[in-house]
Amino acid sequence: MDATIPGPDGRPRCRWCAAAPEFFAYHDAEWGFPVGDDRRLFEKLCLEGFQSGLSWRTILAKRENFRAAFHGFDMDRIAAFTDDDVARLLTDAGIVRHRGKIAAVVNNARRAQELVRQEGSLAAYVWSFEPSPADLPPPQTVSTSAASVALSKDLKKRGWAFVGPTTVYAFMQAMGLVNDHAEGCAIRAEAERARATFIRPQR
């Protein structure tokens, strides 16, 4: 099966965009482009955790609601959440009302604070797990990798929750640690150019 489909402008895009028309904008402007901002990285780890067992379309449709509910994914503000905040969020119909996933965001915010104190930034820590291009499989052929297993294992050791290898690999795809745009996708070269000029944060 061809790994691409025509986009709105006729140029080829990754086939997964066919699942929903709103995916094209996300695919073209965000997915696979490198990110070095702690807040965006933390947000994506949280949203990938919420996606577990659900579709990305569901999460993307609710993303602005998640941002409002979690104060723009400011990890310091979330780390101060109490049980009352968790109970309040369980009544918020704009997000995914799953107690374990909501509690995981609060827990992970506290673990992220610890990680920043130890490593300097979440970005520096995450990008230290960027795989070598020589170690990458063909695009969109796997749902985990040695790098995602290693990052997942280390995050779990640090006390993070909802960060399994598949969730972490989806995070790495989205945040540009790997360029998993299909061969032939019009955006693949753009993402690769962005990766080439991206200054990796240092630990």
Description of the structure:
There is one protein chain. This protein has 203 residues and is mainly alpha-helical. It is globular. The protein has eleven helices and two strands. The longest helix has 21 residues, at 99-119. It has helices at 23-29, 38-51, 56-61, 63-69, 75-79, 83-89, 99-119, 122-127, 146-157, 165-174, 188-197; strands at 4-6, 12-14. The model has no long low-confidence stretch (mean pLDDT 96). It has a two-stranded antiparallel ribbon with strand order 1-2. α2 runs antiparallel to α7 and α9 (146-157) packs across α10.
List keywords for this structure.
single chain, 203 residues, mainly alpha, two-stranded antiparallel ribbon, 11 helices, 2 strands, globular
Helix content percent band: 40-55%
Residue runs with pLDDT of under 50 for 5 or more positions: none
State which percent range the strand residues make up. Answer: under 5%
Task: Count the DSSP helices.
Answer: 11
Q: Please report the distance between the alpha carbons of the first and last residues.
A: 42 Å
Number of strands: 2
Taking all residues together, what is the mean pLDDT? 96
Strands side by side in the biggest sheet: 1-2
Radius of gyration (Å): 17 Å
Q: Biggest sheet, open or closed, and with what strands and sense?
A: 2 strands, antiparallel
